[in-house]
Amino acid sequence: MMRFTTVLVLFLLLGSLALAQPTIACPDDSDTLRSYEIQGSERRSIYTGETVSLEAVVTATFLADDALGGFFVQDPLGDGKAATSDGLFIRLPRSGPLKDTAIAAGDIVRVSGKVLERGEQTQLDRLSELSVCGYYGLITPTDVQLDMASATDWERYEGMLIRFPEVLTVTETYNLGRYGEVSLSAGGRLYQPNNGQDATDNAARRLLLNDGSTVENPDIIPYLQADLTLRLGDTVSDLTAVVVNYGLNAYRLEPAIAPRFERANPRLSQPSDVGGSLKVAGFNVLNFFSSLQARGADSREEFLRQQEKIVSALAAINADVFGLIEVENNGEKAIGQLTKALNTAVGAENYTFVPDPDSGTGSDQIKQALIYKPGKLELLAVSSDPAAIHDRPPVAATFRQLDSGEIFTVVVAHFKSKGGCPPTGDTDEGQGCWNLRRGAQAQALADFVTKLQERSGDPDVLIVGDLNSYRLENPVKLLENEGFVNLDNRLPLDERYTYVFFGESGTLDYALASSELDPQVSGFTIWHINSDEPRVLDYNTEYNPAYVYRPYPFRSSDHDPVIVGLDLE
Fold first, then answer.
1. Is residue 11 classed exposed, middle or buried when 0-12, 13-18 and 19+ CB atoms within 10 A define those classes?
2. What is the domain extent for residue 285?
3. pLDDT digits (tens, 9 = 90+) for 208-246
4. CA-to-CA distance for 53 and 130, rounded, in angstroms?
């Protein structure tokens, strides 16, 4: 009896252990490879082009027709080498019996197919066998810190399930609406290296989060929050169970669990108060063209949407003078239309536009223009800088404040852009192409201001505009050396940006006060209504789902407006 009891206890004990262990039913096959063997230690697998068999555990599935068309597997034990990946992507056939195989995370699968490299991603393709032969359980993600010496260091995690214990920040959403992509960064958002913030190791701190889909311009935009936006500066914590793979020249994350973003950078429905008895704003309005199918709106509907968004921003700013950049250079047509729409929105004839100066506005398709309140200001003079170095000559207007009699001048400038690089000459030497030209434009602008001060008999001059130069670059430093004060120095360092390019925030739009005007500045702010917002929220109708459009200031342009308060003495 004792012997029977002992055998029974052992039987029950072994049975309970068996239940606690993974259920494995894959046939024993010495020719079966491990996922890490296929990946290997090189960028390309040594098995490329060969047909192999694999046994591994499913970590994440993207099986839908509009998804990645396959699933990821990983060896549960791995090879114990931190420098090599234990994961692999398995591409399902587009048709045939294997396509409809029921697969879930935690399943043990046996797969036979050809090893291929697609976009430098190692994967198993052209499957001849796929069977689920047991259940292992969910693979524990590998914890990873987003701090790589170079982008190629992600190769060691290719196809693996990983997790980021740290807080990651949204640093770009440019392609959110088109590809479902979000750029994330460690240690806060990324800044342009020439802008004055700590911008070291930007490439190592950045990674692309995809949406697990191959659809372009999806009807439903991923990752938008309840207010239909995802702003730069928002964060995601403990981003878990994501798979790194390679495509379109970048390593990216494919989420196995939907990430939860937190609104760390809230919208401001109104700009911060700048005080003073006068308010001046500079605003690049992104090709406001009354002529359709030119550089702005393609249709009447788009034009009205663009105008509606810009007007909502202008009305909320409620400046006494607006210096506008990228207005169509067609006389009074575009600026007159915008002024009329603004007056309609505010319910009174509050604004009028400054006429083009006799010296002209140049031959470019766009120009600078000014709108002001005649109930508070008298226009004394208007002129433009005749220097040939300018692509779009700076436009200046001198005003008298009606209640005080004080005189001041506003100059609106737009320097040469960094794009369209020449093959030789003024090429990119670390500050973008055409930097020598922008430097010459800055010197010409300083000389123009001196003439304006002599002409008006008053030294109070405010320059606003898009200088296409970051804060530490030569054109801006030249103007500062000429005695102009960069008013964004009044802001905290992390708020000094008006534009985002390639996920790096920086300042292109400025308010520069003459040394005599600076003590009379009551306040300065940048209203971050555009650079932090996805472009899918703009006025365009092509590809932008109708449900995301709102007639509010957010994404009325791609540049943020700058706002100055003045107490003239």
1. exposed
2. 278-566
3. 999 999 999 999 999 999 999 999 999 999 998 688 877
4. 10
